[in-house]
Design goal:
Length: 239
């Protein structure tokens, strides 16, 4: 009988190759694990803060008119709207910066939950909104709006729907500078850590920029904003 040894040789060769590849992969894995375990990394955060003046303001001027005659009320609203417009324009506010909202009318006697006698039927709210980059001028007019009282217009405050808003829209212009400052602050912290651990600061492994935040400096100066950003940086430490 004749036996072929070709298949056996091929099988044996395949087994040796498989074992060799397995050992090679194991050595690479052990080598990488040893390399990674020998890496030392420090993670630090860097903060940058900047105070900036608001560069845009939204100022709602709200007043109310009450009465029983709608025709009379509409005439009053029209007259007072013109008075407010004249006041704003005469003080350097352009008509394109002023928006007049439709009056909000409440029929007080139609409120079925109200059991108290009501001296008037209608309560009408009118709002003119200034949206402008003239922040300093608007702040000055807020003080001088008492002049409107002489014309019978009492600007009302306290309604949360009509609060003055101060905004800062120039974030893109200061982003690069603030990120650079935050990164420098992070590096200073990392260098101190490296010095204290008898190491040398290496290259950056990873870095991430946090979200920019814009907030009022305090409750009394909402027209001054605080811009804040935190960066997180991983540095290699070398012996």
């Amino acid at each position: 009988m004749f036996y072929s040894r070709g298949n056996g040789s091929s099988t044996g060769l395949g087994i040796f190759v498989a074992i060799g590849l397995f050992l090679l992969g194991l050595m690479i894995k052990l080598g990488m694990s040893d390399f990674i375990s020998n890496q030392r990394v420090v993670t630090v955060k860097g903060l940058a803060e900047k105070e900036v003046p608001a560069n845009h303001v939204i100022w709602p001027l709200m007043y109310k008119v009450v009465g029983n005659d709608l025709y009379y009320i509409y005439n009053m609203v029209d007259t007072r709207n013109k008075a407010v417009m004249d006041f704003l324009k005469s003080n350097g506010i352009d008509s394109t910066e002023i928006t007049i909202s439709a009056p909000e009318i409440i029929d007080m006697q139609a409120d079925r939950y109200n059991t108290q006698p009501i001296p008037y039927k209608y309560n009408v709210t009118s709002v003119l909104t200034v949206s402008s980059g003239k922040v300093d001028k608007i702040r000055k007019l807020m003080v001088e709006q008492t002049d409107l009282l002489k014309q019978g217009v009492a600007i009302t405050t306290g309604d949360y729907r009509y609060n003055t808003q101060y905004l800062f829209t120039g974030l893109n212009d200061i982003k690069p500078q603030m990120v650079e400052e935050a990164t420098q602050n992070a590096r200073m912290t990392a260098e101190k850590f490296a010095h204290d651990s008898d190491s040398k600061l290496g290259k950056i492994k990873t870095a991430s920029q946090g979200q920019f935040s814009i907030s009022d400096r305090d409750a009394n100066t909402p027209y001054i904003k605080v811009i804040r950003v935190v960066t997180t940086v991983d540095y290699f430490l070398n012996d």
